[in-house]
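Recall that a protein's primary structure is simply its ordered list of amino acids. Everything else, from secondary elements to tertiary packing, is in principle encoded there. The following example makes that idea concrete.
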Amino acid sequence: MSEKDEQIKQAQQEAQLRDLEDISRIVGNTLTLIAETDIKGSHVEPVLEIVNYNRGFKKQIDQQIETLKSTLPKKDGLDVPAISPLAEAK
């Protein structure tokens, strides 16, 4: 692969990482909101089912984030993705 192709691939992975982190944050916020809400009566069981599903989903997303982070090259000794080279590739 050429260097330009590598930069494009890395930019795509960084974009995917940002998307996954956003999803994880949103699911985490949803779980927090549900936990802070007083659920009563016949709603308890379906809400618990939703909570358990979201916990499993968040765990899978967090695992994907860690896997994707491990494939990205580290910049300047920091575990922070570089500015997207996708803009340069256009």
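Residues 85-90 have pLDDT under 50 and may be disordered. The chain has one domain: 3-69.
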